[in-house]
Amino acid sequence: MGNLELQKELDEYKNKLQAKVPRITKVMTWSQEYVKVEISITKFRTLIMTLRFPDRYPETNLLVELTSKTLGHNLLFGLSAQCEDECKRSIGEVQILRVIQKVSKFLEEKPLCCCAEEISNIKREILKSDDAIVLKQKQSSVNLIARQGKYYYDAMFCVPDDYPEAPIRNDLNATNFSTAFQKYFQAQMTEIARQCVEPPLNKKKASHTFEKRPSLFPAVKFLVESVHRYVNEVCCGCNNKGFPEDPVNVIDESSNRYHVERLYCGHIFHLKCLVKYMKTPPFQGGKKCPSCGERIFHEKYKVPPELEEARWAHKQARQRELDEVTDFFS
């Protein structure tokens, strides 16, 4: 195409561009060497598209370059390749508007593009063969099922328009873990996501250069690793598995002797094993987790170690008295 014909095409489509592609927020360059435009759906689904005209255009395809401050390199690379394939199918025809429309439509219909890198890393680094992930672009959500043996946790992660400045939200679809662990998983994922976008309330712990960071990957990582871990975790008291092999037999009643209790350090006890351990010496310095040595704090057992030691001593004294009486009559 000669320079005059190219200029005619440029003039014609520049006037049509804003009407046909309303997501064009800025025309940065519009010349016979190249066209550069900004396409923006939201602050975080924004990119700059550069189209370069080869000497024999339109008998050869446009060269496409995509850059963005918020979208990942791999996504941009793949989208650029798709654009060039689209141009190759349109050789001999006008390619400018068609390829710009393609990118605009992609950004509008794929809201999860803002976390594409995280999703790739989740698939590559976190998920095991039995886990599953499904992207739901229309709902801007990620459905994830973490599995270990017969246990599973099915969660929905909703990605807001202002992600990653705003945290992801996690909702429970279904699970066969106990209610206590359902609440723990959900609360921890919510807190992990919050910490990604809010600086610590304790100013001593706060970094002077706190920066918000994406929250999908760390929240999913916690969930998958926790599901894989706790199914096989053993009770610190009896050294048997905390959860039964078959989730049908999971104890949900919190006062049941075999209800699984999680300590703040992350290790677990059956309730009966925890009570027995907390009532058995040594008591000095408070009871410590036999697995990691951390001080035990648990909402169901708040008796001070000094009082528990006094009770134990009293119980032992009574037993000695009974033993003496037994010996006397034997």
TrEMBL record:
Signal peptide: none annotated. Keywords: Metal-binding, Zinc, Zinc-finger. Residues 235-292 form the RING-type domain. SUPFAM superfamilies: RING/U-box. It comes from the Eukaryota. Residues 8-110 form the RWD domain. This is RING-type domain-containing protein. It comes from Orchesella dallaii.
